[in-house]
Amino acid sequence: MPLLTPLQSAACSSLLTLSYVGGLYISASTRVGSLVPASSADVGADDTPASAAADAAPRRRGKNDEDVVYARLRTVGIVSVAGVGATIAVLWQAGAARESRPFFRLLSLLSALGMPLPTPSLLTSSAPFEPSLSSYLLSGLRSIGYALGLTATLYTGPLLVSGLDEELPGQKEFEYKRDVRGKWDNVWGLRNYVVGPLTEEVIFRGCILALTAAAGAKGGVMIFATPLYFAIAHVHHAYETYLDSGKTREGLVRGVTHASIQFAYTCIFGWYANFLHLRTGNLLAPLTAHVFCNIMGLPNPAGASKRHMQRKGAIYAAHLVGIVGFAWGIAAL
């Protein structure tokens, strides 16, 4: 018997989505579009008075401003922790876990959210935990391996292109300082590859899928319907693009176009991430796929073919092989 009604589940999921996105606009430190004075550091010593005045003109705060990124990372972190707590409270009240002791009930609910932890036990051969720490770690590594293998297969084409561009580790154009530290060792890397994927997977996979399951939803609904929350959460980028443009018509068109593409992409990725989460029962799987996709970006076989005209056939074939291999891997998992 379902523990929640579909309406209750949808209401809780919608509230989580609104909290995640709305948190980015509550504080002035996280909002974009407002005019701020240019930093004095932006004006060079050799600038003429006219150019200095132009350089010092107010500009609009953008989502990539360092202070905005820091503030938003703090906000989504707080919202995600609160979201996990609220989801556990709802499921606890609904009777989703039947363990008599609160601590073990909490562990059971965390597992339902895709965050399984070893259960302390003094009554098993693997004391003090069940499963044993080695089995627990192996299970996590297996989830990561599934996701990494499947996602890398899908990106067979882009990986070939990176090889042709000699940008893979060990090749001539690869530079550790630029391609690794330059991407990861800053606030933007923290957002794109750590906090962003982690908080999104916690809310849109862990919490929302657990709430949907508590309403008795079937696998198809959980995989294909719930990514709408994830996709809708990205629509606000159209508004930010509109603000960045100074509220121009061109900016509005560009924002809507970009948001439409992102909506479709996040829906498709959401299907895949949900599949990984439900098959492995571990958030590490969709998190791994999320980070990998953020690193690789969207495939562009047409652009790659222009750079490597003699390898055009191989490039398109590799992309096709990747899609076929990915589909086979999904069916086999």
From TrEMBL:
<dbReference type="GO" id="GO:0005789">
    <property type="term" value="C:endoplasmic reticulum membrane"/>
</dbReference>
<feature type="compositionally biased region" description="Low complexity">
    <location>
        <begin position="46"/>
        <end position="56"/>
    </location>
</feature>
<keyword id="KW-1133">Transmembrane helix</keyword>
<feature type="region of interest" description="Disordered">
    <location>
        <begin position="39"/>
        <end position="59"/>
    </location>
</feature>
<dbReference type="Pfam" id="PF02517">
    <property type="entry name" value="Rce1-like"/>
</dbReference>
<protein>
    <recommendedName>
        <fullName>intramembrane prenyl-peptidase Rce1</fullName>
        <ecNumber>3.4.26.1</ecNumber>
    </recommendedName>
</protein>
<dbReference type="GO" id="GO:0004222">
    <property type="term" value="F:metalloendopeptidase activity"/>
</dbReference>
<keyword id="KW-0812">Transmembrane</keyword>
<keyword id="KW-0256">Endoplasmic reticulum</keyword>
<keyword id="KW-0645">Protease</keyword>
<feature type="domain" description="CAAX prenyl protease 2/Lysostaphin resistance protein A-like">
    <location>
        <begin position="186"/>
        <end position="296"/>
    </location>
</feature>
<dbReference type="InterPro" id="IPR039731">
    <property type="entry name" value="Rce1"/>
</dbReference>
<comment type="similarity">
    <text>Belongs to the peptidase U48 family.</text>
</comment>
<dbReference type="InterPro" id="IPR003675">
    <property type="entry name" value="Rce1/LyrA-like_dom"/>
</dbReference>
<feature type="transmembrane region" description="Helical">
    <location>
        <begin position="313"/>
        <end position="331"/>
    </location>
</feature>
<dbReference type="GO" id="GO:0071586">
    <property type="term" value="P:CAAX-box protein processing"/>
</dbReference>
<keyword id="KW-0378">Hydrolase</keyword>
<keyword id="KW-0472">Membrane</keyword>
